[in-house]
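Students often ask why inverse folding is considered easier than folding. One informal answer: many sequences map to the same fold, so there is more than one right answer. In these notes we will look at a single instance of the problem. The structure comes first.
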């Protein structure tokens, strides 16, 4: 069912949001296991393979690869960062919904966050071919569609007026951007402490 909704959101998002809204989300554990745990594997595993087997080339220069010993911990950290990030945005959505007069459980907020982020998770496949300009274009396109799903889905899924849904969606987007900046800051701090990737070749 998740796969059907995932592709439905790509072709007719508004109709699909109405279908998702009428479903029972299940427990938090089932939502994580059935949906997020596997979906969040796509970007780190793809980047692990791409950066260690294919290598990076900036502007057609020498190809640089990550060593497997440094790539695996980075992929694991990236995976857990994705899980924590989605849970954090879902919790913030639950907290904000009370302000906007919506009524939804944490499970529903988690489902909404997962479906909204699905294009970005799927764009992780491009990490198998780590060409910088191509990766940037694909991720930007996926991020743009995720933002579209956010703004089109909030009024339907949370059952609030469109004008309030716009403010709600903007608030969620701000939370997501703050979480992203926070992850980048943590990465910079870790690299500054000497926990940096090792390159080969």
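Output (designed amino acids):
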């Amino acid at each position: 069912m998740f796969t059907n909704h995932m592709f439905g959101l790509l072709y007719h998002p508004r109709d699909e949001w109405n279908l998702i809204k009428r479903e029972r989300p299940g427990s938090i554990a089932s939502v994580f296991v059935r949906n997020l745990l596997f979906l969040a594997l796509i970007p780190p595993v793809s980047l692990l393979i791409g950066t260690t087997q294919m290598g990076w080339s900036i502007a057609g220069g020498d190809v640089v690869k990550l060593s497997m010993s440094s790539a695996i911990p980075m992929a694991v950290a990236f995976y857990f960062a994705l899980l924590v990030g989605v849970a954090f945005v879902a919790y913030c959505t639950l907290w904000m919904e009370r302000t906007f007069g919506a009524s939804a459980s944490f499970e529903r907020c988690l489902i909404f966050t997962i479906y909204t982020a699905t294009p970005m998770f799927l764009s992780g496949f491009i990490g198998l071919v780590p060409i910088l300009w191509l990766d940037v274009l694909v991720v930007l396109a996926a991020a743009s569609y995720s933002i579209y799903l956010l703004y089109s889905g909030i009024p339907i899924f949370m059952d609030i007026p469109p004008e309030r849904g716009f403010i709600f969606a903007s608030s969620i987007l701000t939370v997501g951007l703050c979480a992203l900046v926070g992850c980048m800051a943590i990465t910079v701090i870790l690299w500054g402490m000497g926990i940096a990737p090792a390159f080969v070749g």
